[in-house]
Design a protein that fits this description.
alpha+beta, 6-stranded mixed sheet, globular
């Protein structure tokens, strides 16, 4: 449900069926916010009418069904009740977890004396696709979307690669000195409407069709045509930002097509109208778009190209941790600013893992064909956030290893965090000052990953120091 919310699939015009809802906690919460949601469960709500809905949630259901035939039927039924998409979530677990319990059929008997089938990420994906004969899109560990509406599926996948840059903020300000007085006066008279159109053009990287701009008729009556409006706006703002927006959109689509090739997606019978316009504008023909995407995908498999792209990204961003001939660590918020080949490289890993929006740091390995996703405890608001989870994706073997930190694996602090941040990121100035002070302590050694939390706390005590917020204080 949280993933649906993050991807804007929970709204008052969407119907949701929680199939196997248990006691119905999620449904009650959604209904409190006037979401059209209902739940069915064979134990708690067996008499609830099952209604075909836009979205069906099958959350942690098939992993507790012991009978394999019933498991398969449940998955198939849930998909049939969906108009747009089915969400499937299961428990993940490797040998270390499974070996704790007594085996039963293809699962185990848990400490509560209940059946549980633990899956690996590739295993549950293959199971869903084998049963439904449809592509399963990884959203997170153990969470997959299966779209029945293929236009919606394409729009979703395109949106995952869409840059979130604030083009309006990057636009040049109006330079009246290089405009005819008549142009400037006309722009000021229609500024609100023209600015909305300009924002839409930058978002699309091209001139929108009449259907894509809701105030098209008003614009046409005021200015004359979309083409005339864009000529005026380019005269006002310059063409550099418009060219950059077009290049960015073309890169987004190239990444989208390349990742589609990586996943060996079945060809779509129909495309969204907007995508058809994009292809015509940027490539002319669909075949040319695929040729460029195929070349981009092959490039992502070349270690030297990945290394050079990481060096370039480090120089352009002026942040990140570059280890020559080994790896590059970058914050996930900067993913869209990376070269297209790195976005594809990381995208291939995320297609196996799922949505990386909750990931803090991404480590790109140059030579081993690996990507590591790192998630920390309150990354932005702590000067020394602790590592909570490390996910290593081996692209060549298409294997995922999960490492959770806590009791068994002590969480490691992240030192000198400021080198990974840009100056407009949250708490950058505070972190910069904190790291400068940290570097001044001769009793600290940052070799490797630096001291463990236990070692660091002991060193603080030995030197009569404590940390409050982003500052060090002497203990009196």
């Amino acid at each position: 449900m949280q993933s649906l919310y993050r991807h804007d699939y929970i709204s008052d015009n969407i119907t949701i069926l929680d199939y196997g809802c248990g006691k119905g906690d999620d449904v009650r919460i959604l209904q409190q916010y006037n979401i059209n949601a209902l739940g069915w469960d064979p134990v708690y709500f067996p008499n609830q009418e099952i209604v075909v809905s836009d979205i069906v949630n099958l959350g942690f259901v098939i992993n507790v069904i012991e009978d394999q035939g019933e498991r398969k039927k449940t998955l198939f039924n849930a998909y049939n009740y969906a108009k747009k998409l089915l969400v499937v979530a299961v428990m993940l677990g490797g040998e270390s977890i499974i070996n704790r319990f007594q085996p039963l059929n293809d699962g185990v008997v848990t400490a509560r004396n209940t059946f549980q089938k633990y899956y690996t990420q590739p295993e549950i994906r293959k199971y869903i696709e084998d049963v439904l004969r449809e592509d399963a899109i990884a959203i997170g560990p153990g969470i997959f979307y299966i779209f029945k509406d293929k236009i919606e599926e394409q729009n979703f996948l395109i949106s995952r690669e869409k840059s979130k840059k604030n083009w309006q903020r990057l636009s040049y300000t109006c330079d009246s000195k290089r405009l005819e007085i008549r142009q400037h006066v006309f722009y000021e008279q229609h500024k609100e409407l023209l600015d909305l159109f300009w924002t839409k053009c930058l978002d699309l990287g091209r001139v929108p069709s009449q259907e894509e701009f809701s105030q098209s008729e008003q614009l046409r009556s005021s200015v004359g045509s979309h083409e005339k409006a864009i000529r005026l706006l380019i005269a006002i703002h310059g063409d550099a930002i418009y060219v950059t927006a077009a290049e960015s959109k073309k890169n987004d689509l190239s990444v989208y097509f390349a990742l589609g090739l990586f996943e060996r997606r079945k060809p779509y019978l129909h495309m969204p109208d907007g995508l058809k316009r994009d292809i015509k504008t940027f490539w002319g023909k669909y075949g040319k778009a695929l040729d460029q995407a195929r070349e981009l995908l092959f490039s992502a498999g070349k270690a030297e190209l990945i290394r050079k792209a990481c060096i370039l990204a480090n120089q352009d961003l002026q942040c990140g941790q570059l280890v020559p001939d080994h790896s590059f660590i970058v914050h996930g918020a900067l993913l869209e600013y990376l070269p297209a080949v790195l976005r594809v490289y990381i995208g291939c890993a995320s297609r196996l893992y799922g949505d990386v929006s909750e990931i803090d740091l991404i480590k790109i390995h140059f030579n081993s064909g690996k990507v590591t996703f790192l998630r920390y405890d309150d990354f932005w608001n702590k000067p020394l956030p602790l590592l909570e989870q490390r996910v290593k994706v081996k692209l060549r073997e298409q294997v995922i290893d999960f490492f959770n930190y806590g009791d068994e694996f002590p969480p490691q602090p992240l030192y000198l965090k400021s080198i990974l941040l840009k100056d407009d990121m949250p708490n950058y100035s505070k972190q910069k000052a904190f790291d400068k002070r940290l570097m001044s302590f001769e009793w600290l050694n940052f070799n490797g990953f630096g001291p463990s939390k236990t070692e660091f706390d002991a060193l603080l005590n030995q030197n009569n120091m404590q940390i409050k917020g982003f500052k060090f204080y002497k203990i009196q």
